[in-house]
Amino acid sequence: MIKRIFAIPLVAVLAATGIVAGMGSLQTYAETSDGGALKSVSDFGPIADTSARSKAIFEEASRVITHPRCINCHPATRSPTQGEDMHPHVPLMNASQSSLGPAGLICSTCHGAENRPVVGSRMKSIPGNAHWSLAPASMAWQGLTVGEICRQVKDTSRNGNRSLADLIRHMGEDHLVGWAWHPGEGRSAPPGSQETFAALIDAWVSTGAECPD
Amino acid sequence: MTYDLLVNGKKYVVDVDGDIPLLWVLRDTIGLTGTKFGCGIAMCGACTVHVDGVPVRSCVMPVADAAGKPITTIEAIGETAEGARVQKAWLDIDVVQCGYCQSGQIMSATALLAANPSPTDDDIDAVMAGNICRCGTYPRIRAAIKLAAAGR
Questions:
Q1: Which of A15, A102, A116 is the closest to B134 by Cβ?
Q2: How far is B90 from chain A (nearest CA, A)?
């Protein structure tokens, strides 16, 4: 950690260009979703076996869950990732126990209640939401298989004590979840919409909330 | 549109667009030029001020978001107990090289000490990682924060 902060001037001694280099992966994306459509629940009707259908539905929903807009803030460590390539957050952030960053450098130091456009930069906007924060450590997704994520999502000891009904509501109504489809200029959105995503979660629950292997 | 800004205890009525970053209103409209423009994308920390007692990057905060809230800039941070200790430690350690980033460094260091009076090295690094110094004064910044903390 100590080495890391002092390494910053070494790799970014030309600070401005260094920052840009660190964000080299940033590309221009339209604000609206370019992630394509999600399959609708009816698309899974031909799968006769209920368990297999449930697993297939979650697999489809995982296209959202594992999208960078969602999984960047469900990291394996307490440090968020960012960008389409999920590189470490710049500046290096540790969300600490609060999930809001260390006292003195909390998320809202930079992230507002809404996306903030910026001009004159390859980065087109600073993402923001009133509840901007990292997911709790128990909800880390990066590095897990879809099946492992699935089992974690419905495990009340790791999911914030949410029932399956709570999960449907959370995925469908929470506005930090919904931010993913309105990520601000310069970021891609996950496929589908919050509504179609929630419909898949609803169908997954009603088919037994089965998890892929 | 007009906005009421409370900067360093003084009220200013400014007639600006609401989406103008607070930084430019502080510098160009009010004339407080101690707060510096660095990267313009909240990546370097040079523009750090306190709004409602919390550090923010003024280069990306719309002025409308800061209206009506107490704002403290480098010009008045020395009037707080932590700020005064930080500034004295900065002088004692002779932290500054070129100085351009130091307004932001001092604002972040003061916020750190206000929230965490006895920070460890890791605590200091975690918070100060958001403030870049091209001169590489990081060792002196950390020493000065420790000195300021010890001077409670």
A1: A15
A2: 18
At A100-114, the pLDDT tens digits run 999 889 999 999 999
* CATH label, B2-72, candidates 3.30.70.360, 1.10.3210.10, 3.40.50.2300, 3.10.20.30: 3.10.20.30
The alpha carbon of A53 is separated from its chain's Cα centroid by a whole number of angstroms, namely 25
pTM score, two decimals? 0.87
Question: Could you list the mean pLDDT of each consecutive 10-residue stretch along chain B, which spans 152 residues?
Answer: 97 97 98 97 97 96 97 98 98 97 98 96 95 97 98 74
- Per domain, the residue ranges of chain B are 2-72, 77-150
> How many angstroms separate the CA of residue A87 from the nearest CA in chain B?
15
Residue contact A105–B130, C-beta within 8 A: yes
Q: CB pairs under 8 A, 24+ apart, for A49-52?
A: A50/A207, A50/A208, A50/A210, A51/A207, A51/A208, A51/A210
